[in-house]
Amino acid sequence: MVSATSSSILNIAHRGARAYAPENTLVAFAKAKTFGCQMFEMDVRLSKEGVVIVHHDEQLTRCTDVESKFPGRSSYAVADFTIAELNRLDAGSWYIEQLTLPNHARQAFLQSLTDAEIAEFISPSERKLYASGSIKIPTLADTLSLAKDLELMVNIELKAQKGTESGLVAAVLKTVQTMRLEDQILISSFEHDLLRQVRRQSTKIATAVLSEMPIKAPLSYLRTLKANAYNLECYRDLKRNGFGDLAGKRYLAHINKVRNAGFGVNIWTCNDPEELKYLLAAGVTGLVSDYPNRVREIMTADVTQVFTL
């Protein structure tokens, strides 16, 4: 097992292999294994009674049938639902409904999904399963149990819920430590105070600073947080300008500076093959993608094709 602080280049499935299965579900995490991923990324929140569950959005409406199961509720926030209520929700059918739409009408991350990829990577039996109503929102414990069985590392992203942050950190750490999975876990968050809380309570579990834009003085900042890695958004002008303009060169220099100091750099969310080539050549330690098949193809391509850019 490669540890979460490994220097190897990681193929990291974003919310599981979410282009090919309903995101942040056990089937999406298991799907990541089929693409040769070493790690999957997922998001955690607290249910009403404080159970750690896996769900990205604050609201349940995009990825479940909550409005039909609980019509007229004043709130559809995860934090306002008990674990028993969450277990009633269908977290899979929405994905199959997306596949019936023309590309331009789908959610943004699915608009580049090709008919060939659907045919190759989503079987008729999987489509039937995803539409069956049996796909549920998993708990963190369920997810880590699966990861342990599949020998996959996990990037746990902490989602802040006002007033419950300390409870979330404590509950996540308790679950990880009880299952003795500290070496397989990378905890990240946009709320960097949560990473401080993690480090105060554990010196063993790796942490990563999540950021949409390059952080000023990244080395001192990462050292202050005692973080292990830097999870940075993909350079926003990469498609238009490559790394040839001044901003692109600064972005590369930023990555190189952090990497040369010994920190991991994992770039998100990378779905375009050309972007993947540039980022791999830039020396990143991980590529977070909705399409881990594309990452795999680039990583196993002829080295001269990848690095002669």
UniProtKB/TrEMBL annotation:
GO terms for molecular function: phosphoric diester hydrolase activity. GO terms for biological process: lipid metabolic process. SUPFAM superfamilies: PLC-like phosphodiesterases (SSF51695). Residues 9-299 form the GP-PDE domain. PANTHER family: GLYCEROPHOSPHODIESTER PHOSPHODIESTERASE, CYTOPLASMIC, GLYCEROPHOSPHORYL DIESTER PHOSPHODIESTERASE. This is Glycerophosphoryl diester phosphodiesterase. The lineage of its organism: Bacteria, Pseudomonadati, Pseudomonadota, Gammaproteobacteria, Methylococcales.
